[in-house]
Fold each of these.
Amino acid sequence: TMNAQALIRLENISKSFDTNVTETVAVDSVDLAIFEGDYVAISGPSGCGKSTLLSMLGLLEVPTSGKYYLNGHEIQELDVYQRAELRNREIGFIFQAFNLIGDLTVLENVTLPLTYRPGMSRNERKERAMAMLEKVDMVERAGHFPAQLSGGQQQRVAVARGLVIEPSVLLADEPTGNLDSKNGDAIMKLLDDLNAEGNTICMVTHDSRFAERGHKTVSLEDGRVV
C-alpha cells in the first residue's frame, strides 16, 4: 500500500551513457519513493549522478533500465510526446542558471508554461502567473526583463515559473548554485515555505547545509545511494 500511494516511485533505475571508448554508468540501481508533501534533498559530490537522477525524475532523460512510476503511470510505456505532455502538466523545474528567456518580460516568462494548456484563456493564464509572482514577492517586477533583475530576483521568477502549472512535484537543480549566500538563504527559505504550504519538492544540492533542510536526504556516490 505504501507503493500505491507514492507520487513518484523509482525501482532499480539505472542510466548509462555510451562514449566511443567506454560506457559510463551515471546512475546505478537506485530505488526511491517520493510522497505528496515530501521535501527530498539529493546530495553528494560533483559528478556522482545527482543531476542525471533529477533529469530522469523530470522526464528529460530516459532510464537505461528499471521502472519509473509517476502518479501510478509507468513512464517507460510513454512516447516522447506523451512524456512531454506529462512533464508540462506534472513537473515544475528550477534550474541553477535560472533559464529565463531574455527578451520576454518577467510576466511572459512565468506565463510561458501555460501556453500549451488547452482551455485556458489568455486572461486566466495572466491571472495565474500574477498569483505566482505574488507568492515569490515579484509582482512589482512583472514588466521588467531578466537582465534588469539581480540573480536572487531571477531565481524567484524561475520559482514562480516552476509553480505556475501547479505541478505534482517541483524539481530544483542546485537552485542556489549561482547565488551569493544571502540570496541563497532567501531562496531556501522560499522553498521551505512552499513545502510548508503542501508543495512536493525534490532538490539536488552539493551543499550539506541545504540538504539538511529536506525531510528526506538521499546521498549519492558514484551513481549509487549510500
Note: The longest strand covers residues 23-34.
Amino acid sequence: MASKTKRFFMLGNEACAAGAIAAGVRFFAGYPITPSTEIAEYMARELPRVGGQFIQMEDELAGIGAVIGASAAGVKAMTATSGPGFSLMQEFISYSAVVEIPCVVVNIMRGGPGGGAATVPAQGDVMQARWGTQGDHPVIVLSAATVPEMYYLTIKAVNFSEKYRIPVILLSDESIGHLRETTEIRPTESMEIVNRRKPDLPPEQFEPLKADMGQAPPMACIGDGYRVKGYCRLTRNERGDPGAVPDVQDRLMRRQESKITANLADIHMFEDMGAGEADVVVLAHGSNVRTALCACARAREKGIRAGVFKITTLWPFPYAPLNRAIGRAKGVLVPELNLGQIIGEVERACKGRAPVVGLNKVDGTLITINEIFDAIVELNKS
C-alpha cells in the first residue's frame, strides 16, 4: 500500500531535523545553543533509528569540522547553531566552499551581537551568512517563513548542497524555530532527493577538480579508491595539485562562482504576492512574511494597492526578479529584525525606480501588523 501524506503538529526545529533525515542526512555533529538545541535533540534521538550517527562536540568549531569530515567520507551531513556559534564556523564554511565538500548549516537566529539575547527572534546574521568568510566564495542561503517551510527547505538545502557541492545555509529565527504548526509531510518517494555525482572514470584517469563552467565536479569520497588530494585548502589545479599560479587561481575561482551564477533559475525561490500590481511593495522574508501579508490585506481594504514580494533565497539575491516585480510601485518597504541588512540589496535591485524605506526592530519582539500597515500608509502618500 502506497504511503500517504501525514499531518504533524511540529515545532519548527523538529520540522527542520525531520526534513534533514528525509533528505538522507545521516550524520549530525554540533553543540547545544539556544534557540536551535531542539534540532540536535531530535537528531540525537532519531538518527540512530535510521542507521545514522549523532555526536555532541566540545564546541561549534569541532561540530562543523566533524560534519565536513563525514561528508568527505560520503555521508550527507548537517549541523545547527545560532549566531555566536555561526560566527565560530566561518573559517570551516570557507574551507567547505573551496574544497567543494557539501554540508548544510542551520542558523536559528537570536538577538546579538555577542551573546545577545538567547530567547528572542532576530535577523542579524543575514549579511554574515553571505560575507562572513574570507575571500569570494559560492554559497546558497535560504530563509524559512513557516514551520512547514522548515521541513521542505531543509530538504532543498541538502539537495542544493549535494548538487552544487557547496555549503548551504538555512536561516530561521527563534519565533519560527519555537513555533508549533500543523505540517503536512509528503511521502519521501514523492519528493526529489539529490545525491552527489560520483566519478564515472577509472581512478587513474580521474581529476578531482575537473568540471565545466557552471558545474560541480564528480565527488570521490575518502575510501572510494580515488585521489582526494583536491581536499587541500590551498589553490589547486584540476588534478588537485596546490600552487599559487595566477591562471589556476583565476580558473578555480571563476568556475566555482559559476556554479551559482549559471544556475540562478534553479536556485532562486521567491513569490510575487500581489507585488506586480501594487503601489506599495513590501519585501519580506522569514518571520516577517505573514505579518506583511496581513498588513497588505488591511491596506487593500482601505483602498491602498499593496503587495508582498517574498524571498526565500536570500543569496544569491534575486535582483532581476525583484526589479521586474516592483512594476508601478510608488515605494518599497523592507521590514527587518535588524538595523538594515537586506535593504541595500533591495536598493540595488530597484535601481532608483522607487524609494526604498526600511522598518527596523531590534528589541527582541516581532514587527507587528500595525507597524507595517502604518508604514505602508506613509509610503502611499509619497
Note: DSSP finds 14 helices and 14 strands in the chain.
Amino acid sequence: MTKVAIIGGGPSGVMAAISVKRFHPEYEVVIFEKYFPLKTLLPTGGGRCNLGFYETDMKSLIKNYPRGEKFLYSIFSQFSTEDTIEFFKSIGVKTYTQDDGRIFPVSDSSKEVAQALTLQLKKLKVTVKHSIIKEIKPQGEKFIINNTEFDKVIIAAGGRYNSPSSGFELAKSLCHKIIDPNPALSSLEIKEKYLSSVSGVSLKNVTARISFEDKKLNLTDDLLFTHKGISGPLAYKISSIYANGKFSKSNPVIVELDFSNGAEINLQQMLNDNSKKFILNITDKFMPKALAKVLLEQINLPFEKRCCDINKTEREQIKVILTAAKLTVTAALKDGEIVTAGGVDLNEINPKTLESKIMPNLYFCGEVLNIDGFCGGFNLQNCWSTGFIAGKNV
C-alpha cells in the first residue's frame, strides 16, 4: 500500500489529504499536525471564512498576488475559484459571493467549513496524528518520519522560520532554497504620531500612492487608523508589496493617501459654492470630522475659518490633505501578521504537479511556498488550489 505523509493540518494540508483520497482511494494518508486540523482556518474572514475571490479572468486574479504570479497561471488553470465553489458544494457547504467579489459560506461560519472538511477526512479514513515533525529522513526514494516509512510526502506547514518544525526548516533540511520569510498582510507603524488621536477611525475606498521598484502604484481599499499607525485591507496591501524589504526609521516608505474616492476635486468651485460655511464642513465630505480636524491642525488652519476667507496657499494645502496626505511608514507590526511572504523557491517546484525538482516524491502546497496574496480570500484560494494539485499528483 502506498503511504502518504502530509506535514501540516491547515487548509492546504487538509485539502491535499482529501484530494489524495479522491484520486487514489487505495492510498493510506496520514496528517501530522501539532494542534488540531484547521485551527488556522477558524479566524479567517473575521470568523466568517473568506473562502476565495470570484474572478474568472486569470490575469485579473493573479494581479492580487505580489509573489508567485507566473507560477500561479498553471495552478489556477487546474483549480480555479469556480472549482473552489464546486468543491465546497460537493461537501455540503453552500456559498455566496459579495458585491466586492469575496466568497463566503452561506452560514458565515468558519466553524461550519472546518466541520465539513473534518467530516470528509473521517469519511475518507484519513489518519490524523498530533505530532511535531522536526525531521524527515530521505531513504532512497522513500522517507522516514517518526520511525515510519512513507512513499510520498507533502509539506503543507508554514510556521515561523526559526522553528525546527516549520515547513521552511523542513524544506531547507531537504536541500531546498528558502526565500527569506517576512510578515505580510500586517498593520503598519507610522512616524506621524499625532494621528494616534484618531485611533479607531475607519474609511472606505481610500487610495494609497506608493513607489516600488521604480514603479508608481495606486492601491485602493478600506483603511483603519490605530494607536501605532494604520491597519485594514489597504495597509495590508502596502505591507504585502514591501514584504521582502525592511521598513525602518532610516529607510521609511512614503505613502500618499487620496480620500477623494477617485473623483476630480475642483476645490475653488467648492469654496465658492459654500462661501459662508466653515472649512471643516467642506473637508468632512471626504473624511470623518475627527480626522479632518487633526489634518487641518497640522497646517494651522482654524476649523471655523469660512470658505470665502481661504487664500491661495491655504487652498493648496487643503488640496494636499484631501488627495495627497503623506504618511511615513517605519515598520510592519508583528501583531498584525496574518500571512507570510517568502518560502520555498518556486524555481525548484514543478508548477504542474507541485513535486520537487530536487527530490522525487516530495511535494509542497500552501503557505510554505513563496506565494502570497492580498487580503480578500486570495491566500485561502492558494491553499485550496495547491492542496488539490499536490494531492492529485502524488
Note: Residues 95 and 351 are 28 Å apart (CA to CA).
Amino acid sequence: MNINRNAYWNKIKPFVDKPIIKVITGMRRVGKSYFLKQIIDNLKMNGIKDSQILFVDKENIDFDFLNDYNDLNKYIKEKFKKINLKKYIFIDEIQNIIKWEKLITSLHKSENYDIYITGSNASLLSSELSTLIAGRYVEINIYPLSYREFVKFTGNDFVSHEKCFSNYIKFGGMPGIFHLEQTAETIFQYLKSIYDTILLKDIVKRYNIRNIALLEKISLFMFDNIGNLITPNSISKYLRSQKLKTYPDTIQNYLKYFTNTFIAYKVPRYNLKGKKLMEINDKYYLNDLGIRHSLLNYRVNDISQILENIVFMELLFRGYNVTIGMQNENEIDFIARKNNEIIYFQVAYLLASEKTIQREFNPLMKIKNNYTKFVLSMDSEIMGDDFEGIKRMNIIDFLKGK
C-alpha cells in the first residue's frame, strides 16, 4: 500500500533544502520511516540523484555497525567522498546512535548537507536539540492516522462512514493494521506487540527499569483512565489494591516515560479566570486507542472517553496546542490554541436528555468572549448555531473536516 500522508509533507515542504535540521518525532510504527521515504521520493522527482542521498535505518540490522557518532561520521564521509553536489542525510531512530548530536551539530555548520532525523523519545531528542542546536531545527510530530487518513487507507473496502468510524474507534489508526487480515484477533495481536516493544525496548531497557510488573500496572491504570484526573495518589491507591507499594516519585517518573515515548500525552488544566496553567491533577490521553483495546479489550461502555480521546488527537493532528479548561467548578473538555485562534470544545456521546444538554452547554455559555465554541456529539440530527451561538456538530463530520 503506497498512500502518501500529504498533511505532513505540506508541513515540512517549506523547510526542504533550507539550513534547518528537520526533526521528525512520534511513537513507534506511526509511519516516520515511511514519511522519510516519501520525502526522498519527492526529492528524486525534483532531480536529486541517488548518489546525493544517504538513508540510515537504525532499526535495521544492516546498520548495527553504526554505534556512535564516529562510526556514522566515517560512514557519511565514505558515502559522499566523490560527491560535490549537495548531500541529503536521513537517519531513522537516531537516538540509537551514541552522541549523535555532536555529529549532527557539526554537519549542520556546513551548507552542503540537508539533514532529516527521526526519533521515538521526546525527552532525549528535545534535551539534546535544545542544548546544541536551539533555533536551528524544526520538529514535525507524526501521529497515528487521522480519521480522514483512515478513510483513505481503507480504500476500496470503504462501505460507509458509520462502518469506517466504528473500525476507527475499535482498531485505532496505526498504519500497519492495513497490511493485516482485518480481524480483531490479528489486529490486536499486532498492536499488543507494538506496546510490548515500546515497553521493553524504549522504557525498560533505556531507563533500566527493574520492576516491570509495576510499570505494566501503572500503564494499565493510565490506559483505563483516559480523560480522568490522574495523580500519584490515585495511582498509589490503585496499586495498593493490587498488593503493590511504591513511591510518588517513582509513579511520576513512570508516567513521564510513557509521555517520552509518545504512548500518551499529558494534558494540563488551564484556569480561565486566573489565566494560568494549574500545577496538579493532569489528564492523560492515548496516542492510539487500538493499543488500549488490545490490552483492556474494546468496551462499548467507555465510548465517552474514547470519543474525547479521538477529538483530542484530531486537534493535535491539526496543529493545535490543547489544554483542559477550568472556570470555577466548570470544566471545558478542550481549549485548542493555534497562532491567534482559540476554540473551546465539549465532547459528548449523545445529547439524549435535558440534563446532558445543560451539562455540556452551560460551561461554554459562562465563557464571556467571542471565540468559537463547539459541542461535538454523535447525534445524527444536528442543528446549526444554538444556545447563544455555540455550534453543534456531529463528531464524524468534524473529523471529516467540515
Note: The first strand starts at residue 21 and ends at 25.
